[in-house]
Design goal:
Aldehyde Dehydrogenase, Chain A, domain 1; Ald_DH_CS_GLU; seven-stranded mixed β-sheet; six-stranded mixed β-sheet; Ald_DH_C; binds nicotinamide-adenine-dinucleotide; Aldehyde_DH_Superfamily; Aldehyde dehydrogenase
C-alpha cells in the first residue's frame, strides 16, 4: 500500500496536496483509541454531546470559503454548488445534532422504558460526490447517540474531509471523531476491524463487498447505494416546467448525484414539444472549471468516470439512439450538456447508473408500459412524475424509496428501495439506527 494519497484536481491535473494513508496497523490503533474515547463520551449527557457537536460545527464558519474551494478543486463541483454544499454542512450540523437528540432520548410507555444506547465504534464510509453532506448526515447522529466515529472519506476528496475533521476536533474530546484515509483497501481493513457498525454511502458494488465482509460478526449496516432514477412525463404535464426539471436534474453536479434523473419517459403525444424544450434549455448550460464562477457543469471527478459516461453515450448511439445535443466523443475532463432520445432497454444508458450530465429519454404510449419500464431496474432510489391529478396514480405504482410529483424526489428520511440499499439518512428512523434499542420493564 502506498504511504501517501495525492489529491488531484480533475480540471487541470494538478496535485493539490496529500494525506497519510491509513494501513491495517494504523486502523487497529485508531479503533483502540476510538473504543477508549467512547466510554467517557457515552457517559456524558445527550445535551452535553449536542452542545459540543454544535460548538464543533461553529468552528467551520470562518472556513466556509476554503471548504468550498477544496470541494471544487478535489472533485470538480462548480463553484456555486460547492459554496452551497459548504454552507449546508455548517448549518445542518447543529440542527442535525438537536434533531438526533430528540429521537434518541429515552421514552416510557406503560411499564416499558425504551432506551437508545450507544453501539460503540461506528465507521462512516463516504463517497466523493457530496463529500461534506454525505459524511455529516451520518457522523452527527452517530456521535449524538454516544458512539465514537471513524470517517473513511473517499480517496477522491481527502483534503476537504481532513479539514472538516481537524476543525470539528477543535471542540471534541480526543479520539471521539477520527479519520482513516485511503482507498478501498483502507475501507476494507476498517470494515473487518473490531468496530460495531458501518454506515456506508456509495456504489452498489462496494456495498456488496462491505456486506460480505461485515457478515462474520454481524456488524450493523446502513447501505445508501446507487440509483437509476426514472422521470415520467404525462400528457397532462406542464411541459416547460417538466423540461426545466429534466435538464436541471440530469445535469446537477455534472450528473454525479445519486438521485439525478437518469432516464426519462415522455408521453408520445407531447414528446416532440418536450424534446424541443429540453434541447433549448440544455444548450445554455455552461461548462468550465473552478476558477470560473459562472459555470453550470464542472469536469467529471476523474478519467475513469469520464470514460464510463462516454462509453454509455457511444453504446446508446451504436444501438440506435439519437444524439440531439452534445458530442459523440467528448474529451477529458468535461462532458458537454448532452441530450439523447430513443434510448431502449439493453443500452447501458437505460439499464445502468451513468452518473454524467446526460438527458436520456424515450417515448411511451400507455401507462402500463411506462410503469413497467420505470420499475424495470434493480435500483429504486428516487423517481419523479410530472402531470396533473393522474400523476399520483402513477406515483403510487412506482418502486422507489423517494418519489416526487412535479418536483424532485428526496426528503427526510432519505431512503432507497430495492438494491439502492437499506437504512436512512436523517429522520427519527435514521438517527435511531445508531443506537441499541433496549427495553427495561419497571
Ligand atoms: P464507491 O462505492 O466507489 O466508494 C465509496 C466509498 O467506499 C469510498 O470511500 C471508497 O474508498 C470506499 N470503498 C471502496 N471499496 C471498499 C471496500 N471494499 N470496503 C470498504 N470501503 C470501500 O462509490 P463512489 O464512486 O465514491 O460514489 C458514487 C456512488 O455513490 C454512486 O453509485 C452514487 O449513486 C452513490 N451515492 C449514493 C447516495 C445515497 O444516498 N443513496 C448518495 C451519494 C452517492
Amino acid at each position: 500500500m502506498q504511504k501517501t494519497l495525492n489529491s488531484i484536481d480533475p480540471f487541470n491535473g494538478e496535485v493539490i496536496g496529500n494525506v497519510d494513508v491509513c494501513d491495517e496497523d494504523s486502523i487497529q490503533t485508531l479503533v483502540k483509541q476510538a473504543k477508549q474515547a467512547q466510554l467517557s463520551w457515552a457517559k456524558q449527557s445527550i445535551q452535553q454531546r449536542v452542545h459540543l457537536v454544535q460548538q464543533a460545527y461553529k468552528n467551520l464558519q470562518p472556513i466556509q470559503a476554503t471548504l468550498a474551494k477544496l470541494i471544487s478543486r478535489e472533485m470538480g463541483k462548480d463553484a456555486r454548488r460547492a459554496t452551497y454544499e459548504a454552507g449546508g454542512a455548517i448549518h445542518s450540523g447543529p440542527w442535525l445534532a438537536e434533531d438526533s437528540a430528540d429521537a434518541l432520548r429515552s421514552q416510557r410507555t406503560g411499564n416499558n422504558e425504551i432506551q437508545y444506547r450507544a453501539l460503540g465504534v461506528v465507521a462512516v464510509i463516504s463517497p466523493w460526490n457530496y463529500p461534506l453532506a454525505m459524511a455529516n448526515n451520518l457522523l452527527v447522529p452517530a456521535l449524538i447517540a454516544g458512539n465514537s466515529v471513524i470517517l473513511k472519506p473517499s480517496e477522491e476528496t481527502p483534503l476537504v474531509a481532513d479539514l472538516l475533521i481537524k476543525t470539528l476536533n477543535q471542540s471534541l474530546p480526543t479520539g471521539v471523531l477520527q479519520i482513516a484515509h485511503g482507498d478501498g483497501r483502507t475501507g476494507e481493513a476498517l470494515v473487518k476491524a473490531n468496530i460495531n457498525m458501518i454506515a456506508f454511502t456509495g456504489s452498489r458494488a462496494t456495498g456488496q463487498t462491505i456486506m460480505a465482509n461485515a457478515a462474520a460478526n454481524l456488524k450493523r449496516l446502513i447501505m445508501e447505494l446507487g440509483g437509476n432514477d426514472p422521470m415520467v412525463v404525462l400528457a397532462s404535464a406542464d411541459i416547460p416546467r417538466a423540461a426545466q426539471f429534466a435538464v436541471a436534474s440530469s445535469f446537477e453536479n455534472a450528473g454525479q448525484m445519486c438521485t439525478s434523473t437518469e432516464r426519462i419517459y415522455v408521453d408520445e403525444r407531447i414528446a416532440d414539444q418536450f424534446e424541443h424544450a429540453v434541447v433549448a434549455i440544455a444548450k445554455n448550460y455552461r461548462v468550465g472549471g473552478w476558477p470560473d464562477t459562472d459555470v453550470d457543469i464542472g469536469p467529471l471527478v476523474n478519467a475513469r468516470q469520464h470514460k464510463k459516461v462516454v462509453r454509455h453515450i457511444q453504446d446508446a448511439l451504436e444501438k440506435g439512439a439519437t444524439l440531439l445535443l452534445g458530442d459523440k466523443s467528448p474529451k477529458l475532463p468535461f462532458i458537454p450538456p448532452t441530450v439523447i432520445s430513443k434510448i431502449k432497454p439493453g443500452m447501458q444508458l437505460e439499464d445502468e447508473e451513468t452518473f454524467g450530465p446526460v438527458v436520456a429519454m424515450d417515448r411511451f404510449s400507455t401507462i402500463e408500459e411506462v410503469i413497467h419500464r420505470a420499475n424495470d431496474s434493480i435500483y429504486g432510489l428516487g423517481a419523479v412524475v410530472f402531470g396533473k391529478d393522474d400523476a399520483l396514480l402513477v406515483a403510487n405504482q412506482l418502486q422507489a424509496g423517494m418519489i416526487g410529483i412535479n418536483q424532485g424526489a428526496g426528503g427526510t428520511p432519505w431512503v432507497g428501495a430495492k438494491q439502492s440499499g437499506f437504512g436512512f439518512h436523517g429522520g427519527a428512523e435514521g438517527h435511531r439506527q445508531f443506537a441499541q434499542l433496549t427495553v427495561i420493564n419497571h
